[in-house]
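[Meeting: bench + compute handoff]

Bench side (C.D.) handed over the final construct sequence. Compute side (W.E.) agreed to return the predicted structure before the next meeting so the bench team could plan truncations. Sequence as handed over:
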Amino acid sequence: MPQNYTITFADGRVTTAYAPRSWTMGDGASAEIGRILRSWGLEPGARVVLVTDRQISRIGLTAPAVDALDGEGFRVEIFSDIAGEPDLEIARRVVDFARNHKPAAVVGLGGGSALDTAKLAAGMLTHSGDVTDYLGTKQFIRPCAPLLLIPTTAGTGAEATRTVMLIVEGRKVFINSPFLVPGGAVLDPLLTRTLPPAVTAATGLDALSHAVESLLSTGSNPFTQHAAVMAVDIIAHWLPRAYEQPDDLEARRAMLFAAYLGGLSLNAGAILGHSIAYTIANRTRLPHGVTCAMALPYCIAYSLPDASDRLLPAVEAAGIGPEKGSTGLARWVSDLAAGLGLPVSLEAVGIQERDLEGMVAECLAAYPRPNNPRPMERERLLRLYRALWRGNLDDVLP
């Protein structure tokens, strides 16, 4: 942690933090999932639905999880028909699958898409109706089925968050509920060793986005702030090493823990950066971590006039000279993303300049962020999008 960092308690707002009931971490920790479910009171013979994706199933990463569940006497039903970010069709199919099998628990194994789909299955097991009944602001009103999540990437933090993301009619929508926070998370670094450098970079910047945005969010609290600063500290030190040396298990352990911390901090609420990222993804279908990395420096720049001090712990955690301040953090994020081979302009990913006004309108209408420290205003956002289209961060830095 930064040497000069201290949590302050000057703000007396009433806030709430969310976290899994337990987390288990270590090399080979996924072998413990059967015993974890038994400790929750599930009996041998109980049915468990395992939600994963096609790639995880194809390369055989489901086998250890199935063995661990079989070893404790559970009957395992596997849903693995997920490819890319889940859309409404996949969401409905996994819900039907879960409802038909009536499991005692749901286990998610994979990246953010598989984990979000597992959350949805667990939530809909205890709620009636269709998935579309819970999009947006309507929340689940009772606990979900027992839910255990095992990430195979180090970025989304879905194993710690209260959000499910879906593609509906071509754009990203969300379901939010405290009941979607899983009962347990299992962090097994061995499952991340096969991640290629490009995925390591994108997911690592995703985790960084979660941490930094949560520090800026007006919903932050001492719990999320501490998790966020720890995440920035770890990512700054270990992400380049994980990218350059994919077999470095110590770096993999560090990034998996940082992603979990980022997920904890994100429960303070994503802000403008994620809204911008969604408008990019809706037009390009780029991975979520890539679009978040593109948006984050500009999100920082937009909010600096009203929230510069919120980011000073992250400045120190990232190893940026104090004289550069929070402005330096925005430049550091941009340089880090470029150094890891990620795009840094909208023009570079095929978006046309004529698209910018529509993106601003969508950002405001579909993804408002009342918890953004600086109100989202059309003209300011249009200036920001124009700077992002050129990849010229200096145009919007104060």
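W.E. noted at the follow-up: The longest strand covers residues 105-110. C.D. will use this when planning the next construct.
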